[in-house]
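Assess this one:
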Amino acid sequence: MLAYRFSQFIPQKDDRTPFERLLELFMELLTHTSGDVDEAMDWMRQIDEAHGLTDEEYTLDDFFEELFNKNFVQQDGGGLSITSKTERAIRKRALDQIFGKLKRGGRGNHHTPFSGAGEEATSDRKQYEFGDPIDRIAMTDSIRNAHIRHGASDFKLTKDDLEVQENHFKTHTSTVLMIDISHSMILYGEDRITPAKKVAMALAELITTKYPKDTLDIIVFGNDAWQVKIKDLPYLKVGPYHTNTVAGLELAMDILRRKKTPNKQIFMITDGKPSCLKEGNQYYKNSWGLDPKIVNKCLNLAAQCRKLRIPVTTFMIAQDPYLQQFVREFTETNQGKAFYSGLQNLGEFIFEDYESNRRRRTR
């Protein structure tokens, strides 16, 4: 018979200083306010009044003063802005939040199931070939081979006796992350842009710290598509835009064509259907249903990506059946992947897919 024994709940001791505890909340609010320091401070004052974050020993004014002294915020013209130090801290925090289970390793690339040029040795051996590094010769195995072939009385070591230790082949990849910033990302009272920004910041921090040989380019798309820098991610905002998925894919393909890496991939975070095209200087828009003219253009680009061996992984933050039908058709055309994820597990999906895609070797 199953039984449960309940005991008194003893909360874990928080050894952080008052500044560190408030800084955690402040950085979360900065992500929601797209880097607006004044608005984040106003929100903190409202939360403090409602929930008593501070006391007489350490007030919000003390916290704000310490933010200046420790170079987290600065005067920028007539207002306040965050510093590059804060931008890095927000990215690191996003990485810890989303990819917290990841154990940090040395600077390098992911392993693949293939043998080849790498740094970590395997248990496999192969016959020595001209050009193999001398320091990878397995001397114990090579001497054993010589002893078996020639005997102890006439011992000699020849080229045919030599064996080389195999290492894990390591590869690198170029990733383009597309983020939908159309108006639908904040419709119906649901904030979808903040989780998307957090995922982008976490992925950027992961790649720059653990996989420095990889490349990550970030694209935002609404009526048009354009690149943003990693340092710009906390400031992303949704605009009064339609969803020009075609422009985003075209820009992503153009970026990847210039990369010399063996593996290339596109990650696309979106919650809505493609609803916009640019024809010359004019925009063709249709917010009602799936417009065949726009959909067919998207499918054509999916097929082009497939020919270029660029898989597109779509992370759909929506549950509408007709939108999922479009994503399924798009994915089938590209032979890529699709995840119909909620806001809570979006980062985990992207991390797992990023890891698995890097284990392929393009021949």
